[in-house]
Amino acid sequence: MSADRSAPTGVLVVDKTPGLTSQQVVSRVRRLAGTRKVGHAGTLDPMATGVLVVGLGRATRLLGHLMRTTKEYTATIRFGQSTLTDDAEGEVTAAAGAAGLDLAQVRAALPDFTGAISQVPTAVSAIKVGGVRSYARVRAGEDVELAARTVTVHDFTADGAAASLAPGPEGPTEVLDVSVTVVCSSGTYIRALARDLGARFGTGGHLVALRRTRVGPFGLDRACLLDPAPDPLPLLDLDDVAAECFPRLDLDADRAAGVRFGRPLPGTPLPGPLTAVFDPDGRFLALYTPRGHDAVPEAVFV
């Protein structure tokens, strides 16, 4: 019990470098922090870089709730070629070329990919099918068809474009690389947006660059690189993270005591659908949700 209490607790915002899996980042943080209780809020592909929110100690229980927030990305979509993985890591499977496609046409199509949309996740993803990751099934030679899901793209802009020739299976292909910015809900696959936009134009499309610039309130300005390793780790305090990410409710000592045991708060209106509850000393206790006229615990952190 004493080891658990002394283990570091907090949130670490990492600027993931290319080539690492999200799990490799978690393993690195475990070694640096000297604790096994580490997790992350939202996978980044090995090719991708940018914000990966990592939780340590009690903060790991907050990660699932942080994953519900909006995320922001910058990316480069290559029109003219399709790949097995919908990004540059997969082999080119078709090269229709992008002759005649320009930035104005891409911009005109983006409203159809904005708002609540139905999206089929890329087959090479971490989604489990029958208990096995979809990407593992694809790499084993299986044909995987994932069910469509509704996601929300809050903002989708095309910021610039450049035409070039890219190597293809039958020689150089004329491609158009378009830089984009996407603000979206959790669960949105930017690779799938690239694939579906390419299908719209009949050119094929895939990602050649992806950088996550924000998860909820955590942007690159608050992110650290792990090489070289920062010492000490710039952990964000769990109390501060909860106050920043959720509406706040401060309680008196009597009601805070009941929250520690996961008791409902009768006749208590909440400022949001998921509210961070604090004791009189400013310590984060729990997340509560409304139920009728009462408030009930979603997760208790003490």
From TrEMBL:
Residues annotated as the enzyme's active site: D45 (nucleophile)
EC class of the enzyme, as a word: isomerase
One of the record's GO molecular function terms: RNA binding
InterPro entries given in the database record: PsdUridine_synth_cat_dom_sf (IPR020103), PsdUridine_synth_N (IPR002501), PUA-like_sf (IPR015947), PUA_sf (IPR036974), tRNA_psdUridine_synth_fam2_C (IPR015225), tRNA_psdUridine_synth_TruB (IPR014780), TruB_C (IPR032819)
Catalysed reactions, as listed in the record: uridine(55) in tRNA = pseudouridine(55) in tRNA
Annotated EC: 5.4.99.25
Domain Pseudouridine synthase II N-terminal span(s) in chain numbering: 30-190
A GO biological-process term: mRNA pseudouridine synthesis
Ranges of residues in domain tRNA pseudouridylate synthase B C-terminal: 191-222
Superkingdom in the source lineage: Bacteria
Domain tRNA pseudouridine synthase II TruB subfamily 2 C-terminal intervals: 246-301
Family designation: Belongs to the pseudouridine synthase TruB family. Type 1 subfamily.
Matches recorded under NCBIfam families: TruB
Its biological purpose: Responsible for synthesis of pseudouridine from uracil-55 in the psi GC loop of transfer RNAs.
Protein name in the entry: tRNA pseudouridine synthase B
